[in-house]
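Slide 14.
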Amino acid sequence: MVAQNHRNRQLLHRISASVREYDAIQSAASRTVGLQQLAIPRDLLDSFSHDPAVVTGSTRRHQGWRAVEDIHNRVVRQRKVFQNFLRQVHNQENCERRNILDDPMSSLLRSLKALQQHKTSIATEAQKVAQELKDVKVVHQDVKDGYNKTLSHTSVVYPELSHIVALEESYKDQYQQIWEFAMSTLTLILDGVTPVWRTYGKTIGEDIRDFLIIPLYRNEFTGEARRYPITAFPKRSLRHWIALFLFYMASLGIMSLQIRGAASSTMHYMLHWIPYESFRWIILPLFWVMILVQWVFCILEFFVVSLQVGTLAWWIGWSIRIVS
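Slide 15: predicted structure.
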């Protein structure tokens, strides 16, 4: 019997601890959502976790009927605590309790009502647009029939119009072919440049940084008021120097050839050597565009060569201590 009572008391202690933890979690959650939750009183938990029939120190001071009366009083007090808590819970249940989903549900219902109104207005506008499209389709068909009749009539009366339309279509086809050729050429150039840049892009970037950017932007490169110190000439391998020299010579050669080609094209800008006037006037716009593109490339190549010459002159001046 003593062992059974001990197990019952241990079970009551565990249940009381679990209820206390549940009440703490429920109170924290209620405060988070802004609800008022009836907390379990501490005296209720204490009454639930203690056995009123257990013999305590005060009970040992009594003997006979007085000890029984003391245990009975504790049982009565425990029952009163339970009854008071149950009465509070019953009163709270009778009161109107606010649900945490009331406000979100109300907002959702208002949004659904507004969406329904928008849906109704959009459906009405869609019906109007559909009706207008039907009317436009009828008008388009009437205009198309009138255009075809007018075209057939003018083709018979003025046959030159048919030739003009045919020439316009041929010009459109030619310009479309030129555009497609230009796009294919650009794609081919990009496909050829991308692998080269992926392989040598880092090396080219380091050369531009060491030979050009640092000498030109000494303060900006450091981000401070002091100048970036250049203590030694950039070190490169012999193969790298040969590649830079070949690039410089290739730039000079390409620039000279490009300038000679652009000058020659400019001298023959009217294409007098073509005997057919109609064909010559068809080719002239494209030829003038080609001349403009040539001069643009000449300017870019001259800028690149000038930049190379200026960089070389600066480093020669740095080597002989003319510039620092």
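Speaker note: The chain has four domains: 2-93, 120-158, 160-228, 236-324.
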